Amino acid sequence: MNNNQELSQENQESDFSIREQIEKYLAHWKWFLFTIIITLVCAFIYLRYATPLYRANATILVKDDKKGGLASEFSALSDLGVLGGSKSNVDNEVEVLRSRTLIYNTVEELKLNVSYINHGRVKSVELYKNSPIVFLFFPKAKDKKFKKTIFQVGSVNKDTYRLTYADKEIGIFRYNKLISSTLGNILVTKSTREDSKLNGEFSIDCEVSPLAKKTQSFKSRLNVSPLSKNTSVVELSIVDEVPERGEDFLNTLVEIYNQNAIEDKNLVAEKTSQFISQRLEFITNELSDVEKDVEGFKNQNRLTDIESETKLFLENASDYEKQKIETEIQQNVVASMISFLKSSKSEDLVPTNILSTGTDSEAGSLIAEYNKLVIERNRIATGATLDNPVVKNADKRIVALKSNIQQSLYRLQSSLNIKRRNLDREGAEIGGRKAQVPRLEREFRIIDRQQKVKEALYLYLLEKREETALTLAATEQSAKVIDSALSSEVPVSPKRMIIYLGALLAGLAIPFGIIYIMDLLNTKIKTRQEIEKRLAIPFLGDVPKSESHEEMINTNSRSSSAEAIRIVRTNLEFMLTGVQGDKGKAIFVTSTIPGEGKTFISVNLAGTIALSGKKVLLVGMDIRNPKLAEYIPIKSEGVTNYLSKHDRNLESYITKLDNFENFHVLSSGVIPPNPVELLMNDKLNKMFTELKDTYDYIIVDTAPVSVVTDTLLIANNADAFIYVVRANYLDKRMLHVPEMFYNQKKLPNMSLVLNATEIMKKGYGYGYGYGYGVQEEVKPWYKNIFKK
């Protein structure tokens, strides 16, 4: 339950703090209204005469290297290794479009360094192409770095004009005539545009700026950026006072960019063509030398086609080996047969088919005939004896035929030996030739490789020469215009809504800042909440600032101050409930420093209590600086006279007011030379005892407690202390004074009143209803607008 109460209290305090801050600024609403009107008027004047700026935009498609764009013309050299792998891309072309050189050429092409100004009464207008003249200025060679120069050109008649420089007339000249001057040559011609704004008499300022300075101006305003990372589309934009000039600048910039790119491509293509022609001439000579080397190599080695001839030679070498082996076999066979014949008998058969076919048909036929005869003889001998004439005849024939076979074999053996010797000679020749084959192949491959390389390079250069010729014949632009330059119809600057909004915010911010700074630098107490946050002293109420500090409450008073005093009186009754006894109550009123309105509170509080039917005495105890006489017509003699003399009673010093039946006043009297000693007199205590027996309330106006000790000397006679704090007067750092007195209980039954608080003029008054149902008289606003 307690937590909920604390939370509710915190929320209420927070809401009140926010409301308090809002009301603090609303109290100065006239400041806000005045500054808003001033700032809006200033904004209107600014927009009326400010020069509007327009944004021109153009969009182009840059040929990217990934799509064979700008780098395609370099391919002939890059493939040859003449150029490296650095190729053009969108980022590079963006930098080219922003380059000083390209912008310089554009400014020079359009002659943008010359401005035509028509001066009005308040505002000057740049004519650009609407100028009725074209001004050309050619500075001298030594004066190319001239500063900005202004010439005045005024019409005289349709054929002549007046030229002025630095308020000095140079002369009257005819159009289209070159003029020589100390600054340079000047040529003025008539404009051919039909939409020239000045067709009659005119006077125009021709401002000639250095090209470099004008280039920097356009460069700082030019923006070039790709639309996205995945495309090669680039957007160009520039902000300029003249919409048409912005469009012309962007269009011409792209044209010169394409023109420079084409010239660069053609230059590269021409250089490439020259390089290829030189290389072709050199390669042709080298290829001719290599072909002569091939011809000499073949003639020297008796070759036509080394590969086919080498293959045939190797095949012949294989046949030779076969023949050599067969010859050796036949030699062995023949030798074996000769040996066999020598050792064989008449009845033995000679082996047949061991001689290779085609070796010696004679020996073969003789052996076949011999074997046939031996078989016949052996068949006859089977049925007859060896002495049988037929057998003997057969034996003779066998011996003769065997001799013939031997002779034939000897001849065959001799033939095979000759063949063997021939094969050996041929083998030696083949071996020598075979040993030369790798060397010939190696030498031929070296020459053949050179020939093939030269031929391939020759054909490649011929192909590239044709490609370069095609490139020269049809050169493609580096940038394709997607959208030509177009300026916005609405100015991008100044933006009317933003200017007015800024003026409105400035009109709010200026007084807000002033009030905030004043509040920040102001260390004075302003509100009740500031006191309650710092001090735990009972608070009787706050009294609004009165129109007159000498105002005194009466029965007809309905002001906020009067109602506030009545609330203080009511709250004071609660503070006095703890006071014992039926005697009158002594209420002392004090403050920290002079000027806080304690006398004002004392007088009006006493009057308010008196109006309620109570008998009240107002006592002036500020004997060093009395102020009661400023509010009430009273006697000059008073407390000090009573304390210092013994011949008169106290009642003789009391003044009775005519308008207040129950309101009496005892002034402080003559200012004494020894106030402290006088206040320490025992007679003072007797005086208060006597007064309490006579009056219901004794309101005592005392001295400030931080200035003198007078109040502390008489504090023991008080039943309650009202400590007055004046708003916007007492420094917050002085609040420790009432806090100290309260904690040390030096001022009995102490409570606070905040005096002279600021109020807002409302029907219900201030706070909880001061002057309920009554509207205070409000002065005209023009009298109070600067009062705050």
UniProtKB/TrEMBL annotation:
Q: Where is the Tyrosine-protein kinase G-rich domain?
A: 448-516
TM annotation in the entry: 31-49, 497-518
Which InterPro entries does the annotation name? AAA_dom, Bact_polysacc_biosynth/exp, GNVR, LPS_length_determ_N, P-loop_NTPase, Wzc-like_C
- What are the subcellular locations of this protein? Cell inner membrane
- Provide any one GO MF term from the record: ATP binding
> What CDD domains does this protein map onto?
BY-kinase
- Per the database record, which ranges form the Polysaccharide chain length determinant N-terminal domain? 26-110
Root EC class: transferase
Gene Ontology annotations for the cellular component aspect, listed alphabetically: plasma membrane
Recorded superkingdom: Bacteria
State whether keyword Transmembrane helix applies: yes
Q: How does it sit in the membrane?
A: Multi-pass membrane protein
Alphabetized, the UniProt keywords read: ATP-binding, Cell inner membrane, Cell membrane, Kinase, Membrane, Nucleotide-binding, Transferase, Transmembrane, Transmembrane helix, Tyrosine-protein kinase
**What reactions does this protein catalyze?**
L-tyrosyl-[protein] + ATP = O-phospho-L-tyrosyl-[protein] + ADP + H(+)
EC numbers: 2.7.10.2
Q: Where do the AAA domain residues begin and end?
A: 585-725
**Coiled-coil positions:** none
Give the main localization category. membrane
Protein family according to the UniProt entry: Belongs to the CpsD/CapB family. Belongs to the etk/wzc family.
Q: Supply the name of the protein.
A: non-specific protein-tyrosine kinase
Q: What species was this sequence derived from?
A: Flavobacterium endophyticum
